[in-house]
């Protein structure tokens, strides 16, 4: 995450990028696996438990929400990542607080290539 934050700081401060788009895609296998692992109390092999741990806040936040659990968790993950970016590094925080940077999240629709944005 630190290397990503450094690259984003460069984009915002040096290149004057005014917008960061956090984009997840529908039918995400990683989110689906995290949901199953959390619901079934199972552990995935290798390093995958760290993926489940990273996605758990989104999965747990929408556990009782109406609608499709996979869609809800994917959207929530994008939203949480966008919120985290706003304070991930000093230059990003400053740019966001000074209204020089907007951070938006969205979901990419694989079937038609459309992106649905949300904040």
Question: Summed up, what is this model?
Answer:
This protein has five helices and three strands; from the N terminus they run αβααααββ.
Describe what you observe in this structure:
- The structure is a single chain.
- By secondary structure, the protein is α+β, with helices and mostly antiparallel strands.
- The chain has a single domain, classed as Beta-carbonic Anhydrase, Chain A, CATH 3.40.1050.10.
- The chain has helices spanning 2-13, 29-40, 48-61, 69-85, 90-97, and strands spanning 19-25, 102-108, 115-118.
- The chain has a three-stranded mixed beta sheet with strand order 1-2-3, covered by helices on one side.
- It is globular and about 45 Å long.
- The two termini are 21 Å apart.
- The mean pLDDT is 94.
């Amino acid at each position: 995450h630190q290397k990503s934050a450094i690259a984003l700081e460069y984009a915002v401060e040096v290149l004057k990028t005014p917008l960061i788009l956090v984009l997840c895609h529908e039918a995400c296998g990683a989110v689906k696996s995290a949901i199953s692992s959390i619901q079934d109390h199972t552990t995935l092999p290798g390093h995958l438990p760290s993926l489940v741990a990273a996605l758990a806040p989104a999965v747990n936040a929408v556990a009782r929400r109406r609608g499709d659990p996979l869609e809800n968790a994917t959207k929530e993950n994008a939203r949480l990542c966008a919120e985290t970016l706003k304070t991930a590094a000093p230059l990003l925080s400053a740019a966001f607080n000074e209204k020089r940077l907007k951070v938006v999240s969205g979901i990419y629709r694989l079937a038609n290539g459309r992106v649905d944005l949300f904040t």
